[in-house]
Design a protein that fits this description.
The chain is α+β, with helices and mostly antiparallel strands. The strands form 5 sheets. Strands 1, 2, 3, 4, 5 and 6 form a 6-stranded mixed β-sheet that branches. It has a 5-stranded mixed β-sheet with strand order 12-16-14-15-13. Strands 18-19-17-20 form a 4-stranded antiparallel β-sheet, covered by helices on one side. A hairpin with a 2-residue loop joins strand 9 and strand 10. The longest helix has about 30 residues, at about 475-505.
């Protein structure tokens, strides 16, 4: 293939990059031309035209570097190979790309390939999940930026695609990609995607607004000239260097406003915005922006409700600007944006402009800085920002598909059984296994991002108690527990009826409740319900109960009980004598760090740590749980189950890491999470397990931090250090 048709791309690379990068881009073009030879787009042009056009957008409109440019050129090579070649052949191709162009390029192209293979369903309720899934595939944030450039090139060329693809690609662009571009501050790219999508989704509305904008262009320019005259005169008088941009509202924005406010085109007053862009050194930016604002407000009356100050506190994506709306003659409202050349570059090209503007060092370290910020923006979703302080988030999300393409969001670690219950309770209750990516698996299979999951059922399948160890979602756990409770009630009813019949047949004239009370003591059961369930499920042979009850009625059981009670009292006296001779109770449970070696665990309700006063509580089927003596549940456990409470103490030499949870209330201000982690991790050298802060809507945030400590001696110091952090209002142990 003749690659001279891409000379404009080579020229763009020459003007932006070093000679080493130019050679690598040339090699990438030659490599892609060879691999894509004979591959054509819908209009008969070479498929490589698409990759070259994406590379031009990546360089000139987003501001990315060498690896992103090369990945843009090669991404169709990887996409087609993944679809058409065997696994072994594809692996050889990726190894070849990595050896020629580097590990970063191989990783980026693979990420783009994963996104391309998503089968997006055009349903509004699914859009948010698909956006999150697209972002989750972008472990390297350059992947999502190149994908946005790829989608923009497709939309610019949408006329060459078959008509049946127009609406689908336009819907995706509007609901998925434009939303991501907005979050990253790529406002120009966002507006263009929205306008082109509207052109295909609502062609009549689009054409109507476009025609109206053309018809009113001359009138707008005349109005702008008269409006700016007094402002420019004062700015010139003060010697401020500036230039003016007049930005007409995007067609999609006008269309949205017309529909929301139910007004015609003429009823949309802020059709355009004026941008005053100041040329000044960095240290004078704020001062001159507010000076210009003062000039504007002297000339025209501002609307205080429409004032936006993103200079004092920039948006999270780096956007800085002063926005004000003023009243002009004739009752027209005019929006004015005041910013500097640097701020305008950031607004036009997003966060990349921070590091590529006016000679800022473009070395690898600086590149990593802005990529790091971009990665934070991509990861910032509805769940707590502080999850990212762990090497592996404790409650991250995965996205999996049903066979017909519906997407479901589940927590990381979710199993096939969780998925079944998430679809429908009936499906979960009868689930016997399933298929993940056409591979047969059990209900315990842990799902991964992007899996396609099919559930298999059996009519006679019912939830089991051990299913609670398989699932992680609250929905699945609650459904399983509800079924088990219903089964318990049903078994209790059947067991009681069975026992009543047998007592009549055996001619035992004691009331059933007395008989059940004795049987519960005999079998060491807490309630009659447990006895009834064992009878109903035949775990207690009903025939054996006759002999036990007759033994009780004969009085022999009473004599045995009196002897046992006497022996028990004698044992108590012997034990009390031993206690007086040792400083600690010899029969107390001794707790040390080797928790996994015996059947006990630390209670999650109070998180006891070495140094706390503690006691043990015997659970049914889960060993012994260790609680603090001031645990919220302590009083209830002592009153209701005194016979299951045992004394416990820490071994004097117990060493280990215990988790303590500290509740925090702080001011809602940037950097508060970073300040907390710096004090705990860097200054105190303690290991943070989780940190979660949530806005309370009143200017403050509340949450918890979970920290590993060696014992209570460190807790007071930890809380004291947190309270001293600027912005912290309260901190206390949970």
């Amino acid at each position: 293939m003749d690659t001279s048709r891409y000379d404009s791309l080579r020229e763009l690379v020459r003007s932006n990059f070093s000679s080493v990068t130019q050679l690598l881009v040339k090699e990438a073009l030659d490599y892609a031309a060879e691999k894509l030879d004979g591959r054509l787009r819908y209009d008969g042009t070479p498929l490589l035209d698409h990759g070259a056009a994406v590379a031009r957008i990546v360089i000139s409109e987003i501001g990315l570097g060498r690896n992103s440019t090369v990945s843009s050129i090669l991404h169709d090579v990887v996409r087609l190979a993944h679809k058409e070649r065997s696994g072994e052949e594809f692996l050889l191709l990726m190894n070849d790309i990595e050896s020629r162009f580097g590990e970063a390029v191989a990783g980026i192209t693979m990420g783009l390939c994963n996104i391309s293979e998503l089968k997006v369903k055009t349903a509004k309720e699914q859009a948010s999940n698909f956006r999150d899934l697209i972002v989750s595939y972008s472990q390297d944030p350059r992947v999502i930026l190149i994908k946005l450039a790829d989608r923009l090139e497709v939309m610019r060329s949408l006329d060459i695609f078959p008509r049946e693809k127009h609406r689908k690609k336009s819907w995706e662009s509007l609901n998925l990609y434009a939303q991501i571009a907005h979050k990253l501050g790529l406002y120009n790219l966002k507006s263009e995607l929205e306008d082109i999508a509207l052109k295909y989704l609502e062609p009549q509305d689009y054409e109507h607004i476009r025609t109206k904008l053309e018809e009113t262009e001359k009138e707008r320019q005349t109005f702008i000239g008269r409006f700016l005259e007094p402002i420019l005169e004062r700015m010139d008088r003060q010697g401020i260097k500036y230039h003016i941009k007049s930005r007409t509202k995007s067609i999609y924005s006008i269309w949205t406003k017309m529909h929301k406010q139910r007004v015609p085109f003429e009823g949309v007053y802020d059709i355009f915005a004026l941008r005053i862009i100041i040329d000044c050194p960095r240290e004078l930016e704020k001062q001159l922006c507010w000076t210009v604002y003062s000039i504007v407000s002297d000339c025209y009356v501002p609307n205080p409700e429409r004032m936006r100050d993103w200079i004092s506190i920039p948006k999270s994506n780096g956007y800085e600007s002063l926005h004000t709306t003023v009243s002009a003659k004739g009752g027209k409202w005019v929006e004015i944006q005041i910013r500097t050349e640097r701020m305008d570059a950031v607004a036009e090209r997003g966060i990349a402009a921070h590091w590529r503007y006016k000679g800022v060092n473009q070395g690898a370290q600086t590149s990593e800085m802005w990529l790091g910020q971009l990665r934070e923006l991509l990861e910032e979703k509805t769940h707590a920002l502080a999850e990212r302080f762990e090497s592996k988030p404790v409650s991250h999300e995965i996205f999996v598909f049903t066979p017909n393409g519906d997407i479901r969001k589940l927590p990381e670690g979710a199993t096939l059984l969780d998925f079944a219950f998430d679809i429908h309770s009936g499906l979960g209750s009868t689930c016997s296994g399933g298929k993940v990516n056409n591979r047969a698996v059990s209900i315990r299979e842990v799902l991964r991002n992007g899996d396609i999951v099919e559930i298999m059922t059996q009519k006679n399948q019912t939830p089991k108690a051990d299913w609670l160890n398989v699932v992680v979602t609250s929905k699945a756990r609650s459904r399983i527990k509800a079924y088990l409770r219903e089964e318990q009630v049903k078994n209790a009813r059947m067991g009681r009826e069975e026992l009543e019949r047998k007592l009549k047949n055996w001619k035992i004239d004691k009331p059933i409740d007395e008989a059940v009370g004795y049987l519960c003591k005999y079998f060491k059961l807490r309630t009659g319900t447990e006895l009834y369930a064992l009878v109903a499920t035949q775990k207690i042979e009903i025939g054996s109960l006759k002999e036990i009850l007759n033994h009780w009625l004969s009085g022999a059981a009473d004599e045995e009980r009196r002897q046992a009670a006497a022996e028990q009292e004698a044992e108590k006296l012997r034990t009390a004598a031993k206690r007086e001779s040792v400083p600690h109770r010899s029969d107390a449970l001794v707790i040390d760090e080797a928790i996994n070696k015996i059947e006990y665990k630390l209670a999650k309700c109070c998180n006891p740590i070495k140094g706390d006063e503690i006691f043990g509580f015997i659970t049914i089927g889960s060993g012994i749980t260790i609680h603090r003596t001031d645990c919220p549940n302590a009083k209830r456990l002592h009153e209701n189950y005194p016979y299951r409470v045992i004394e416990a103490r820490w071994r004097d030499r117990a060493d280990g890491a215990f988790r303590v949870v500290v509740a925090i209330v702080a001011k809602d201000e940037p950097g508060i999470a970073n300040r907390i982690t710096e004090v705990v991790s860097r200054d105190l050298k303690l290991n943070i397990r989780t940190l979660s802060l949530t806005s309370r809507g009143d200017g403050s945030v509340a949450g918890t931090i979970s920290v590993e400590v060696p014992g209570t001696s460190v807790v007071d110091m930890l809380i004291h250090s947190i309270v001293r952090i600027k912005g912290i209002q309260r901190a206390y142990r949970v």
